[in-house]
Amino acid sequence: MNKHNIHIKKGDILNGKYHVLSHIATGGMSEVYFVEEVNDTNRRWAVKVTNMESKLASKLIDETKLLSELEHSNLPRVVDFFSTADYFFLVQEYIDAVSLSDYFQLYNNQLPLDTIIKIGVQLCDVLHYLHTQKPFPIIYRDIKPGNIMINKDREIKLIDFGIARKFQQDRMKDTVQVGTVGFAAPEQFEKKQTDTRTDLFSLGALLYYLLSQGKYVYIAQKPIKQLHKRLPKSLDKCVTHLVELQPENRLQDAREAKILMLKAKEEWENKRNRKWDWTLLRPISIISISIVLIGYIVFSFI
């Protein structure tokens, strides 16, 4: 028995097509299983299953509809979906990765700066893709470490579109106030309309969290440069302008954030190169000085 009252076990065949290999995880509204295709055991997928009696079943169905329209390297690919009288099934690409929250803990909350920048740049790419969907931009609304999967090559997948929605300009406010405390923008808990800038705040809050070794911007209430002394100027500017409380004061486009992060990467690499160049030159300088001194002594005795 599991918390979602879903009776599926190892060895079961789903829809006459998928052989259940193991249970992977329990989510907020579903159970996730690792499966292989009956007719081709080399094709393996992850299946999200929700109980049709659950009030949250409609959210997985909405997530399926949304994801099935999308195709991006930083999003899980939808393979199939179907339902029975008891359950709804979403078959997705299996992601061989860990959550960013687990990855962060593995590094004792101290990720290398280049890794943080790489994560941020990839998030900018996928957010720009979502925000430029036609006819309606998609607002993700739940950027946090638990919803980001990262593999051994530091490539990410943004998962769990349960509270994502299509933005419609004529709405004055969201139907429901939702989000994760610590990463959600202020407007997500107020009677206001969320838009693409809501995701940009959450991106900034995530970067702040990773750069500060796990501190939340709401609680710390300090400029990020005070918590990360070696921060490149462009990254400081990026994070500072992303976490502005008023949407109109934030960066307005994910591409702006990406440009600043790529510039920060360049600043960081140049700084490291200068450091290593000085280290390499020091022995040469000492040798040069020694040669000059020896020459001076020799000529003094001639």
TrEMBL record:
Record flagged with keyword Membrane: yes
Keywords recorded for this protein, A-Z: ATP-binding, Kinase, Membrane, Nucleotide-binding, Serine/threonine-protein kinase, Transferase, Transmembrane, Transmembrane helix
Broad enzyme group: transferase
SUPFAM superfamilies: Protein kinase-like (PK-like)
Domain of life assignment: Bacteria
EC assignment: 2.7.11.1
Reaction(s) this enzyme catalyzes, per UniProt: L-threonyl-[protein] + ATP = O-phospho-L-threonyl-[protein] + ADP + H(+); L-seryl-[protein] + ATP = O-phospho-L-seryl-[protein] + ADP + H(+)
Residues annotated as transmembrane: 280-299
InterPro entries with a match to the protein in the record: Kinase-like_dom_sf, Prot_kinase_dom, Ser/Thr_kinase_AS
Gene3D superfamilies in alphabetical order: Phosphorylase Kinase, domain 1 (3.30.200.20), Transferase(Phosphotransferase) domain 1 (1.10.510.10)
Stored PANTHER family: SERINE/THREONINE PROTEIN KINASE, SERINE_THREONINE KINASE LIKE DOMAIN CONTAINING 1
Name recorded for this polypeptide: non-specific serine/threonine protein kinase
Organism: Oceanobacillus polygoni
Taxonomic lineage: Bacteria, Bacillati, Bacillota, Bacilli, Bacillales
